[in-house]
Amino acid sequence: MPHVLIVDDDVNTREALAEITGAEGFTVAVAGSIADAKEQMQQRRPDVVLIDLKLPDGSGMDLFNDIESRATTEIVLITGHASVETAVEALRLGAADYLTKPINFRRLKGLLSRVPRTDDLKKEIGELRSELRRLGHFGQMLGAAPVMQKLYNHISRVAPTEATVLLLGESGTGKELAAKTIHDLSLRSKHPFLPVNCGAISPQLIESEIFGHEKGSFTGADRQHKGYFERANGGTLFLDEITEMPIELQVKLLRVLESGTFMRIGSNQELETDVRVVAASNRDPEAAVAEGKLRLDLYHRLNVFPLRIPPLRERRNDVELLAQHFLDELNAAHGASKVFAPDSLSSLMNYHWPGNVRELRNHVQRAFILSDQVIDAAALTPVTTSQSPVGLTLAIPVGTSLADVDRKLIYATLELCGGVKKRAADILGISLKTLYNRLEEYGPYEGVPKNDDSTLHSSDSMH
Prior knowledge:
- The protein is α/β, with parallel strands linked by helices.
- It has four domains: 3-116, Rossmann fold; 121-308, P-loop containing nucleotide triphosphate hydrolases (Rossmann fold), CATH 3.40.50; 312-380, Helicase, Ruva Protein, domain 3, CATH 1.10.8.60; 390-460, Orthogonal Bundle (Arc Repressor Mutant, subunit A), CATH 1.10.10.
- The chain is built from 19 helices and 18 strands.
- The strands form six sheets. The protein has a five-stranded parallel sheet with strand order 2-1-3-6-7, sandwiched between helices.
- A hairpin with an 8-residue loop joins strand 13 (261-262) and strand 14.
- It is globular.
- Residues 141-369 form the Sigma-54 factor interaction domain.
């Protein structure tokens, strides 16, 4: 039976927490001070520690370093003096979550329900993950390069906690797969994982999509709609391209992250949600803050545990592993048994892959379609022109702002593609909707033909 230690100097709070945790199937120990808590931990290792921030002999966060089994012990900070700074600091120190007084017992029960019940299960899961990592598999991610092993180590540490994660990396590096892996390795894995591309939803609809709306709340709202925060309750919400979210909506996002409550459009009833947020951006978030694209307070709330996803050019030894994996997927999907010719994969190693793993996947799929039983080097060799790859020929002076780099890269890619926006979006690794948003922001480019085949359809708006 799992064990919980409750550390609070208020007798009534201790008794209420003890009753709740006992009813959820935990054995319970209580302490009124840091000194008492240390004695209790010496007698039995807790699976969960509920710690009040204000204690007679110090701060509850002072106890964090005395908890030896941090990897298998959930730490929850309880405070009547909530602030973003306190929450962020607690999460950075290793807390799984924090609760404010008066305590939301429904949220506490949800947290307790995700605690593994046996040490054997924890050990078995840990051994399986170690073996898969050695083989280059980690959750839904693939790669054995040292930079990937370092990333896996960070994910394995943050996934079991409730910390908000900010994924940073170029387009096509696999940020959604990283987010899904964090979810799969967390205590929320049996609950929903919902990805949201903030750049692919119309600014007029995104609030409704995220928070929901009531019937009749606006023209066309002919029924009640549950938003992502409501549908992801208990699970993980992945907010991709977070810097594309309208600035006025970022205020409401910050509120739900801090309070765990929100309201549907057209309603004045607050709804509770227990959702872990993983956000991602292919832009420098600090530059986005400076440009007014991302609120500073929201950035601080999201940046609890930042993770950089490395580009494919920094993990070249993974190219063959990934190419074979994509071929295996295509063979399984089409009932085929195509193979790579001996030494054919060497043609992929020297290309710099500006579109990263997504570009490699598309390249293998093209070679699969064009080849019969054997995929040779000719089919696999990346097609380049005198202007391609763009990243090798586009001159960017040192000191250029990131916004100007982004604009120049988009215009150069459009010129390379003859103004065909769908092709440019594929190369850049962004959705067609996001490309249109960027062009609207940066203004028209005379070097791109006005007539192209990039009519935007709803099916083009997501990867």
